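for the writeup, i need someone to sanity check this before i put it in the appendix. the sequnce is what the collaborator sent (i think, or maybe the updated version? ugh). structure was predicted straight from it, no edits. if anything looks off just tell me and ill rerun, i have time this weekend
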Amino acid sequence: MHRLPPDDPRRLILRLLAEHDPADAAEAADVRFVSDFVATHPRCFGKADPVGHITASAFVLDPDHRLLMTLHRKLERWLQVGGHSDPGEFDPANTALREAREESGLPDLRFHPAIGRRPLDVDVHRIPARKRDAAHDHLDIRYALLTERPDALAITDESDDLRWFALDAVEALGIDPAVRRVLGKLRRRVVAPSR
């Protein structure tokens, strides 16, 4: 493991990644990439590093195992909710929960009991250049959340739409392979055990 000072907030990320069990070779490569990036980029939180930064996202489920997806206004794609850490926010689980609450309006979000606060998935994806921002990488730590109040949705200015989808319907939205991998994890870890 990379050696960092005891008070360095990047140590939490490195520990989470070291404990994470990747589902496939692509995720294993992303875990290694994120570990190396975090160890060598002290400003990896927020948007401070223009090359890339840690982000956190949430796959929000309701009691019927429907998945919340947002039609992202800037990227014009259906995605899970999530985003960047705020200043002083170094735990990606906290970032994922905060971002999910802000982007969905769901007041009762909590970590899904089948997964807990452990990362569900790790993914690196490229964000294209836009206006003032150069192309950069999002090093996304992903979590599973649960709501008991799916009708409490509130669309924010980051979304053009916000909807619940059956897991089997999500693939028709043009999702990338990493989201497809997450759907498999959700089916195995959340849906199958509850049957």
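The longest helix spans residues 25-40. The longest strand covers residues 136-146.
thx in advance!!
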